[in-house]
């Protein structure tokens, strides 16, 4: 009698029971794995957003320091001597809007190094963030209207486009808020602010001037850069 009871206790799972367990595990995996991958993506996005915010803070802090030194004397124009970030920190200019390319120059390299962004693998075969561009109130002197921004506007960050890697979700800062879609482009891919003039917010009626901080995209002129940025329109 005891032998029969022991044999019953040692009896294993049947094939049907094993199949049921495997089916249950497969169902759980199908439910949990997408959720887990989504959690990883959200964690990565939050980390990139924090870095983008750190970049905004660092750039704004540097501009405040520059305003303390030069804000009272800086005049409007489209030459190096008139740029908020100029001199040896500038590669070239876009004459139409006075936009500035500061990539690979001492100022940009210091910002990225201080934030430990220069070591990022951007997925394009190089180090450093894939693309960073920020916008200030324009200091470029328009031939018709002249400079319409105040000296405070010229040292205030109103816009940032931050893309950490080639496959990252783009991050836009505009009028004090962050978004994944370009806030100045509509669903028809039209620029909402004609001639880079703000249509709302604290810079309403005034122009925006762009400064490129990091560019690993292969787009090396302002036309191709703007086409690249416009690709992240609202949808």
Verbal overview:
The chain has 235 residues and is α+β, with helices and mostly antiparallel strands. The chain has one domain. It is 35% helix and 15% strand. It is built from four helices and seven strands. A seven-stranded mixed sheet has the order 1-2-7-3-4-5-6, with helices on one face. Strand 4 and strand 5 form a beta hairpin. It starts with a helix and ends in a 5-residue tail after the last helix. The mean pLDDT is 80.
Brief characterization of the structure:
By secondary structure, this protein is an alpha+beta fold. The chain has four helices and seven strands. The chain starts with a helix and ends in a 5-residue tail after the last helix.
Break the fold down into its secondary structure elements and pairings:
Layout: H1 2-9, H2 15-70, E1 92-94, E2 99-101, H3 106-114, E3 131-137, E4 157-163, E5 171-174, E6 177-179, E7 208-215, H4 222-230
Parallel strand pairs: 2-7
Antiparallel strand pairs: 1-2, 3-4, 3-7, 4-5, 5-6
Question: Measured on Cα atoms, how large is the radius of gyration?
Answer: 26 Å
Shape: elongated
Query: First CA to last CA: what distance?
Result: 75 Å
Total beta strands = 7
- Main sheet record: 7 strands, mixed
Low-confidence stretches: none
Helix content: 25-40%
Provide the spatial order of strands within the biggest beta sheet. Answer: 1-2-7-3-4-5-6
Order of helices and strands: HHEEHEEEEEH
Provide the β-strand percentage band: 5-15%
User: How many H/I helices?
Assistant: 4
Q: Residue-averaged pLDDT, rounded?
A: 80
* Count of all domains: 1
What structural class do the secondary elements suggest? alpha+beta
């Amino acid at each position: 009698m005891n032998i029969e009871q022991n044999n019953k206790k040692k009896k294993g799972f049947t094939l049907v029971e094993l199949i049921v367990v495997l089916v249950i595990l497969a169902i759980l995996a199908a439910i949990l794995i997408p959720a887990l991958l989504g959690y990883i993506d959200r964690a990565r996005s939050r980390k990139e957003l924090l870095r983008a915010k750190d970049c905004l803070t660092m750039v704004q802090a540097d501009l405040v320091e520059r305003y303390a030194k030069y804000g009272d004397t800086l005049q409007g124009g489209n030459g190096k001597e008139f740029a908020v970030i100029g001199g040896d920190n500038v590669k070239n200019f876009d004459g139409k809007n006075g936009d500035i390319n500061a990539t690979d120059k001492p100022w940009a390299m210091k910002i990225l190094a201080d934030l430990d962004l220069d070591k990022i693998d951007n997925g394009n075969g190089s180090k450093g963030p894939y693309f960073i561009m920020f916008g200030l109130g324009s200091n470029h002197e328009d031939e018709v209207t002249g400079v319409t921004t105040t000296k405070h506007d010229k040292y205030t960050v109103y816009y940032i486009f931050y893309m950490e890697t080639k496959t990252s979700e783009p991050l836009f800062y505009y009028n004090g808020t962050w978004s994944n879609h370009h806030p100045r482009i509509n669903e028809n891919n039209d620029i909402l602010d004609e001639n880079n003039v703000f249509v709302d917010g604290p810079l309403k009626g005034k122009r925006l001037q762009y400064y490129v901080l990091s560019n690993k995209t292969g787009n090396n002129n302002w036309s191709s850069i703007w086409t690249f940025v416009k690709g992240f329109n609202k949808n």
